[in-house]
């Protein structure tokens, strides 16, 4: 397990050292985010290609320290190598789709086609899919067709969820860091060092990137970053849900409902995405249309600055994970209901607070 420290340090140092140079390149090539759009929360030109270094740092560290020597079962080793192959291939697709969107833009239909292609590679070829709900609402093993559709749907939702929450300095990177650390710890204690290596490599990259992305941000991750993070986190979540519990020796892990834990870790991206999709659909708008109706936008509107907004959402995400871990002694269905209603209540709190009225008495420069 000690090698995970090297995995973290490698990706952390690579991103920390290279990001300033990437910012200079972006400034010279004028690869900026447009601050003139009404829904934007910043008022200055900021580079948008941070996803380049997140992708490079994570993939480099994961590949360099890939723990093949820790796998003693030939069948497990073969599966791990297959997983590595398909994860790298799909990451390349998502990265290039994202970087094209960051630089010249990509039509939503083309992005959806890329999402479908990636999800089908992972589900049908890599066989990384959800096979059971482990007793939630009495559902256990899923039929093959249901497993396929649920897994593809999960990939599309989670990847887009991270793309949608990337609207405030440090939000997507911080939530991604929390998720990668949580998943990395789970896999490490469960003995799956391949997935732990992937999670910790991402955690190291995001930890360093936060130095430049936290408010006031010097660089944004862009779609290339949010799509990369979303895909890795989704793979980790589905691998966790489908993990063979017969190989787990840690008693506490055996008590944790895997689907509930995965949903608790992803509670903010999933909640905000579900809420915004319902909001837009009810009003006859496209679920993929851009607006300022996200929870982080609401926190900004009621007077929170970027730092307060992201810190509040970090704490809420960590609190829901802690709640999930503290309820391991009750039925998974009850845990799901409790977390669902707690999350629903917390999501409505900002809307009971009056909007902050900006002071227009100051003269404009």
Order of helices and strands: HEEHHHEEHHHHHHHHHH
Percent helix, as a range, is 55-70%
Query: What gross morphology would you assign?
Result: globular
Query: How many individual β-strands?
Result: 4
Describe this structure in words.
This protein is mainly alpha-helical and 365 residues long. The chain has one domain. 67% of the residues lie in helices and 3% in strands. The chain has 14 helices and four strands. It has helices spanning 3-28, 51-64, 74-103, 108-125, 144-164, 171-190, 193-213, 222-241, 251-255, 258-265, 267-282, 295-301, 306-326, 332-348; strands at 32-33, 46-47, 132-136, 139-141. The protein has a two-stranded antiparallel sheet with strand order 1-2. Strand 3 and strand 4 form a beta hairpin. Helix 1 (3-28) packs parallel to helix 7 (193-213) and helix 7 (193-213) runs antiparallel to helix 8 (222-241). The chain is globular and about 55 Å long.
What does this entry show, briefly?
The chain is mainly alpha-helical.
Q: Tags for this entry?
A:
14 helices, 365 residues, globular, two-stranded antiparallel sheet, disordered C terminus, mainly alpha, single chain
How are the SSEs placed, and which strands pair?
Elements: H1 3-28, E1 32-33, E2 46-47, H2 51-64, H3 74-103, H4 108-125, E3 132-136, E4 139-141, H5 144-164, H6 171-190, H7 193-213, H8 222-241, H9 251-255, H10 258-265, H11 267-282, H12 295-301, H13 306-326, H14 332-348
Antiparallel strand pairs: 1-2, 3-4
């Amino acid at each position: 397990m000690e090698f995970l420290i090297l995995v973290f340090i490698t990706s952390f140092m690579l991103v920390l050292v290279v990001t300033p140079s990437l910012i200079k390149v972006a400034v010279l090539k004028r690869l900026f985010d447009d601050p003139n759009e009404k829904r934007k929360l910043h008022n200055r030109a900021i580079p948008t290609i941070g996803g380049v270094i997140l992708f490079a740092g994570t993939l480099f560290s994961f590949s360099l320290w890939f723990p093949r020597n820790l796998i003693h079962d030939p069948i497990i080793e073969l599966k791990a190598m297959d997983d590595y192959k398909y994860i790298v291939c799909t990451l390349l697709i998502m990265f290039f789709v994202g970087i094209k969107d960051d630089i010249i833009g990509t039509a939503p239909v083309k992005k959806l086609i890329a999402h479908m292609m990636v999800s089908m590679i992972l589900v049908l070829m890599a066989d990384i899919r959800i096979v059971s709900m482990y007793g939630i609402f009495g559902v256990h093993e899923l039929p093959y067709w249901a497993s396929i559709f649920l897994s593809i749907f999960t990939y599309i939702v989670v990847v887009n969820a991270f793309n949608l929450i990337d609207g405030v300095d440090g939000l997507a990177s911080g939530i991604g860091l929390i998720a990668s650390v949580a998943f990395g710890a789970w896999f490490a204690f469960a003995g799956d060092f391949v997935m732990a290596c992937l999670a910790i490599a991402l955690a190291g990259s995001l930890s360093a990137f936060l130095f430049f992305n936290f408010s006031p941000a010097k660089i944004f991750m862009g779609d290339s970053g949010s799509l990369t993070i979303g895909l890795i986190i989704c793979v980790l979540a589905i691998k966790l849900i489908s993990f063979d519990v017969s190989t787990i020796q840690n008693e506490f892990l055996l008590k944790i409902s895997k689907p509930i834990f995965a949903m608790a870790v992803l509670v903010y991206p999933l909640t905000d995405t579900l809420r915004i999709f319902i909001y837009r659909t009810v009003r006859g708008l496209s679920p993929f249309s851009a607006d300022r109706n996200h929870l982080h936008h609401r926190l900004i509107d009621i007077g929170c600055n970027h730092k307060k907004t992201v810190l509040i959402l970090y704490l809420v995400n960590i609190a829901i994970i802690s709640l999930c871990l503290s309820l391991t002694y009750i039925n998974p269905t009850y845990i799901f209901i409790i977390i669902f209603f707690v999350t629903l209540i917390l999501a409505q709190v900002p809307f009971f607070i009056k909007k902050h009225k900006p002071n227009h008495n100051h003269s404009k420069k």
